[in-house]
Amino acid sequence: MYKLDDIITTKKKHVCGNDKWKIIRVGADIKMECVNCGRVVLIPKIELDKKIKKTA
Predict the structure, then answer these.
(1) In the predicted model, what is the mean pLDDT of residues 39-48?
(2) Do residues 51 and 10 lie in contact, with contact meaning Cβ atoms separated by under 8 Å?
(3) Among 9, 5, 40, which Cα is nearest to 26's?
(4) What mean pLDDT do residues 1-21 have?
(5) Could you tell me if 14 and 3 are in contact, meaning their C-beta atoms sit under 8 angstroms apart?
(6) Are 4 and 51 spatial neighbours (Cβ–Cβ below 8 Å)?
(7) Structural domain boundaries, residue 30
(8) What Rg value do the Cα atoms of the chain yield, rounded?
(9) What is the mean pLDDT of residues 22-32?
């Protein structure tokens, strides 16, 4: 479902005010980077499925 370099939109905005994230690693955990500020977050795939709005 998730592929490298996909841009996803989350339901809640990040602290910097952006809701777009770039997928940089795929596995049991998904590593993603905020498109605006560059913050990198590692989140389990199951949790991300609940927080995602859409894939761009």
Answers:
(1) 96
(2) yes
(3) 5
(4) 93
(5) no
(6) no
(7) 7-55
(8) 10
(9) 96
Q: Is residue 1 part of a domain?
A: no
The C-alpha angle with vertex 24 and arms to 19 and 47, in degrees rounded to 5, equals 60
**Number of domains the chain contains:** 1
Beta-carbon contacts of 17 under 8 Å, excluding residues fewer than 6 positions away, are 36
Measured from the Cβ of residue 42, the count of other Cβ atoms closer than 10 Å reads: 11
> What pLDDT is stored for residue 31 in this prediction?
97
Residue 56 has pLDDT above 70, yes or no: no
| Number of other CB atoms surrounding residue 18 within 10 Å | 15
Q: Please report the pLDDT score of residue 53 as a whole number.
A: 86
Asked if the model's pLDDT at residue 1 lies above 70, the reply is yes
Q: Which two three-digit tokens encode residue 4?
A: 């490298």
